[in-house]
Amino acid sequence: MGIMGILLAGILALIPCLPATAQDSGTITLNMTGAMEFSINLTPANWSFGTVTPNTVNTTDLTQFNLTVDSTSTCAINTYVTGEDAVWADDPGAYNWTLSSNAQNDIKVYVLWFKPDGGESYIPITKGQTSFYSGTLGPGDSKQFGLKLLTPQPDFTKGGTGYFSVGSAIVQTHVTISAVVA
Amino acid sequence: MVRQSKYLFWLAAVLLITVVLFPAIVQAQSFSVSPVEIEIDNLSPGEVTQFNLTIHNKEDVNHVFTLTTYNPGESERREGRAEFPDESWISFSPQSVEVGANSEAKAKVTVAVPPNQKWTGKDWEIWLRVAPEEREFLVVNYYIRLLVSTGEEVEAGTSVGLIVSILVGILLVACVIYYFRRKAKHLIF
């Protein structure tokens, strides 16, 4: 009778813990769509606008750049474009141009646009994510595009001519094209 | 000071009044990532889950890739998915992955939602970004969609319940041993 009482007391003590332990059997489901894969190719990866002067527009051909979804890809993708500040290659901390967020240039503020071949107008590239192509792109799809650059207003003017304070220098920037499964 | 300004002016004037944008270097990196979408269901707040990402470097040279998170805007997320509340709940091991030429490497992703009732029954989306460390003018980044749905229960009680169960079990066994020993003593005497 005594041992039965002890066992009963033990079982009663365990009852409050049962819901918590039952939770252990809850299953986390992890679905990984491993069968899907994609990759994109951008050509050419590099480009130079050459020598530019303050407050001037410089454009590439609209077929200058090419984005291709690899034909081995197995899904459609959405694409986005972002830009960033341009920096002096020799000393990035000493001189830079901020990428405009409103398509207006200023002193040390430059503007960059892209335009798909056949597109109606140039679309500003900003530090925020902008849709590169409004629809989805599938395996083998290809989009050509061009860039337009509006350089900053001069750092100073002398005799009616505008100058950049760094004189002749190389200024670098990057344009990122991102892809995600549609 | 005046002399220095004059020098800068003449330097600028003599060395041209121009700036060159985008130097020409090499060509774009070619890589892919797998899986491209991950859906985690019934992850109770307080629980931790892990999975692997595979990065395939398709080039003839080694590359280093960095893993980060990105919270997409509403229009970019799947329908019915809300913004992931805290990017620090996701961690990568390692955060930077070196992938050999024409080979693959894996990184472990850990998702841990804190044990709080307010995180139950949620449907979130966040993107995992894979970006090459070496960058040319045009850079390719890939995102992996991570869809996380939390369970209705907070998992914090589980370990507490388990500890209490073990303690009660030990107490129970101790009582039984004590009872039999005492009974045995009575039999001897």
Poorly predicted spans of chain B: 1-18, 23-27
User: What is the tally of beta strands of chain B?
Assistant: 11
Main pleated-sheet profile of chain A:
9 strands, mixed
C-alpha Rg of chain B, in Å? 30 Å
Under CATH, the topology of the largest domain in chain B is which?
Immunoglobulin-like
Quote the distance from N terminus to C terminus of chain B.
110 Å
Number of helices of chain B: 2
Structural class of chain B: alpha+beta
Description:
In chain A, the strands form three sheets. In chain A, strands 2, 4, 5, 7, 8, 9, 10, 12 and 15 form a nine-stranded mixed sheet that branches. Chain A has a three-stranded antiparallel sheet with strand order 11-6-16, with no helix packed on it. In chain A, strands 13-14 form a two-stranded antiparallel ribbon. Chain A has 182 residues and is mainly beta. In chain A, a hairpin with a 7-residue loop joins strand 7 and strand 8. Chain A has one domain (40-181). Residues 16-25 of chain A have low confidence and may be disordered. Helix content of chain A is 10%, strand content 42%. By secondary structure, chain B is an alpha+beta fold. Chain B folds into two domains: 28-154, Sandwich (Immunoglobulin-like), CATH 2.60.40.10; 155-189. Chain B has helices spanning 2-14, 156-188; strands spanning 19-21, 31-34, 37-43, 48-57, 63-70, 82-83, 90-93, 96-99, 103-112, 123-132, 138-150. In chain B, the strands form two sheets. In chain B, strands 3, 5, 6, 8, 10 and 11 form a six-stranded mixed sheet that branches. In chain B, strands 2-4-9-7 form a four-stranded antiparallel sheet, with no helix packed on it. In chain B, strand 10 and strand 11 (138-150) form a beta hairpin. The longest helix of chain B is centred in the last third of the chain and has 33 residues, at 156-188. Chain B is elongated, with a radius of gyration of 30 Å. In chain B, 32% of the residues are buried. At the A-B interface, helix 1, helix 2, strand 1, strand 2 and strand 3 of A face helix 1, strand 1, strand 2, strand 3 and strand 10 of B. Strand 3 of chain A pairs antiparallel with strand 1 (19-21) of chain B.
